[in-house]
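Here's a chain:
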Amino acid sequence: VAGENFDQSPLRRTFKSKVLAHYPQNIEWNPFDQDAVNMLCMPKGLSFRTQADNRDPQLHSFIITREDGSRTYGFVLTFYEEVTSKQICTAMQTLYQMHNAEQYSSVCASSSCSMDSLASSIDEGDATSLAKLQRYNSYDINRDTLYVSKCICLITPLPFMQACKKFLIQLYKAVTSQQPPPLPLESYIHNILYEVPLPPPGRSLKFYGVYEPIICQRPGPNELPLSDYPLREVFELLGLENLVQVFTCVLLEMQILLYSQ
């Protein structure tokens, strides 16, 4: 089901997403909130691409804060996989045909063209315009490959961003690689869920991902809280002047709102 963005072309619309599977099914001290995780994993909804679009994987994180103040951290890797359902591909082409027909109708309506003038104008410039519209704003099931967004997410009690990022990237490579990994994928998922413990305060932990070992550190009781987010990215995203201004506002205890697309 598409969202309320029908003025956009079908490949630029967003569609309703859902959780396909989660493991383990239930944890008493940390119940799984399916609606919240679904919304935070895909805040803009499900999206489609073709071979002409950028499909590089992207990683983002989120925090779920409960009523008692406890926090749960989520780390999400979003990627695109090829749509194998012919029914979905056919539906996308139908959406494009409807969209282009509506676009062309609105062009004619705005120019107040009659049937006679329409017939004459189609032979001239409008036919070229329509051809361009259909060529650059279309999806051809016989020519294009359709891809859909998908997420894999790790939910943790502490913000081990770098460790989770490395594990998700390795898991993604194992899923998309032509050569299968040394062990079944279920083995690596079972290992990180049930066999890799939290490192004790003030200690480091080394565990094995799919292809390479991964190290995570936990600060001690007398150390600053864990902040595993790279400071360089903050400078790249905000810029030096904005970051100084934000830091000044923090020191002055001002209210701060960060807005982003």
About this structure: Strands lie at 48-50, 58-65, 71-82, 146-156, 204-208, 213-217. The two ends are 22 Å apart (CA to CA).
